[in-house]
């Protein structure tokens, strides 16, 4: 039987699974993709600890993923944890849980916390795999729940990367308690985003970049709303191009909506309803900065991201 491998990405807001089949030539073919919102990073920004109920939600999702891995006869697995777990004082509780679940597939397997630089490198590898080298240099932006990775590179690989301590969950919990947020709250969120992203752009020069690639749930959800999809469709979202005017139009709408209005949008995942406004604020600041610094005029959104990079890394290709 052809070998099958599994990649798991556990972020601040969601946990995702990719099972791939390894071809004779080393190519990877998707067998199964799945995403669940578990909000592992609930309250971490304020408390510095993972909430027990958040760990339990993540355990339930991971246990279901492990059942799928067993059914698909997966032989190798890599699970990475990112921003929320990096920040947590009680992260050993999380590791113990993952060791118990992943050990059902590969004895001794456990989640690993990766650095922001590693997260950036894996995101870049997954995001640009289907894009023409002529479109580079690229800036890949992985806008997550607790952090945002900026990576600049081309067909030769990564040239510069930085992980900024800002994401849709972190900015929402810190700046956007209103339903809908007030003008003052939105202004404070923009100021917070600007500060963190200025720090990132100081470390990641983008002046020679030709193409902006956005990955992860905030970017894909914004795109699905911009396309006015009746329900989420990854095949419609993947490699869609939005002008910066379109980005601003949909982000402004999302920021101004209340919870019920966002929840009523066809492609909106229930777990993103209360944090998509924060993600939209960050996206608008990114759009403005990339237009000014690099002359970028559009956003290319990819469904392939760190999850694909994790799978490639199992084979030593990322």
From TrEMBL:
Q: Which InterPro entries match?
A: ATPase_NBD, GppA/Ppx_hydrolase, Ppx_GppA_N
Family annotation (Pfam families): Ppx-GppA
* N-terminal signal peptide: none
Residue ranges occupied by any Ppx/GppA phosphatase N-terminal domain in the UniProt entry: 25-311
Give EC number(s), comma-separated.
Answer: 3.6.1.11
Q: Which GO terms describe its molecular function?
A: exopolyphosphatase activity
Statement: the UniProt record of this protein carries the keyword Calcium: no
Keywords assigned: Hydrolase
Which reactions fall under this protein's catalytic activity?
[phosphate](n) + H2O = [phosphate](n-1) + phosphate + H(+)
Concerning its family, UniProt says: Belongs to the GppA/Ppx family.
Assembly mode? Homodimer.
Protein name, as recorded: Exopolyphosphatase 2
Source lineage: Bacteria, Bacillati, Actinomycetota, Actinomycetes, Mycobacteriales
